[in-house]
Design goal:
2 domains, 7 helices
Length: 273
């Protein structure tokens, strides 16, 4: 495995941001295990992915709320407690969990780690272990033993076997997940086909890789959600990128942590289509 070494100081990622703070509700992150795999199991016991409900034998009608909106953890923990006030370490039945997406799993693991003073952050990119060769996905990156490691908190004992997972989900192999920036660089260099990257059957191609480049950039600047989450509003006219847009994405892909004044996505900024 190739280690993700870096000269950056991870200390900036040891503290909560607006999305990762657990709040002062009845459920919090105090007293949880330090083992990342154990934390992943706790996350899996309170969340269920909106796209995998049938795998657990449940349907949308059994839940109060089914939404793809990523909530701040203070709100998510409050939602969980309102439905089931058991300790956070208690595994809920599938129909008593909060419905979310991969980003919710990543964010909750990130919050748990930050609560312990561990540097952690949410990354947007593409996973190699879904139906598509490179599927839109979010994971948690955490600092341990001098390098960034990656964990996928979503894939539990129900989903992992269905995907034929045979590797450590608390320390992903480097070729199982790549950040959006790495995907963009590969595509721009002609090393990968942009059409291999996307979100299910809904979207794929270089324009969508750019969407994730910007979303990862925002996450690396403490904004795990952004207006770029509205990519489903994009029309065919927005799928063609200008040289200026590609050049800007080149810079973000190379330096996702670099602060910028990124404009609204064109489908939110009134661009003619």
């Amino acid at each position: 495995m190739v280690a993700m070494t870096t000269m950056e100081n991870p200390d900036r990622w040891r503290h909560h941001g607006p999305m990762s703070a657990p709040g002062a509700g009845s459920l919090n992150f105090d007293g949880l295990p330090v083992d990342v795999a154990a934390l992943c199991r706790i996350v899996q016991g309170v969340l269920i992915h909106s796209d995998w409900l049938t795998a657990y034998g449940v349907g949308e009608a059994q839940f109060r709320t089914v939404s793809r909106e990523t909530l701040p953890l203070s709100g998510r923990l409050r939602q969980i407690a309102e439905h089931d006030g058991s300790a956070l370490t208690t595994e809920r039945a599938p129909d008593r969990r909060a419905v979310g997406t991969c980003r919710d799993y990543a964010l909750m693991l990130c919050g748990m780690l930050r609560q312990q003073g561990v540097a952690a952050r949410v990354r947007c990119g593409f996973g190699a272990y879904f139906k598509r060769e490179w599927e839109d996905h979010w994971i948690c990156e955490y600092w341990r033993e001098g390098r960034w490691r990656r964990a996928d908190a979503q894939l539990d004992r129900v989903i992992a076997p269905r995907l034929g997972i045979g590797f450590d989900l608390a320390d992903l192999p480097h070729d199982m997940f790549i950040t959006a920036g790495e995907a963009w660089r590969r595509c721009r260099a002609g090393e990968a086909d942009p059409m291999d990257f996307g979100h299910g059957a809904q979207a794929n191609g270089l324009w969508f890789v750019r969407v994730n480049v910007v979303r990862d950039h925002h996450s690396m600047n403490g904004r795990e959600t952004s207006d770029w989450d509205t990519w489903r509003q994009a029309t065919a006219a927005h799928h063609s990128l200008s040289e200026a847009e590609c050049a800007a994405a080149d810079e973000l892909a190379a330096h996702p942590e670099k602060p910028t004044a990124e404009p609204l996505p064109p489908w939110r900024a009134g661009k003619e289509s």
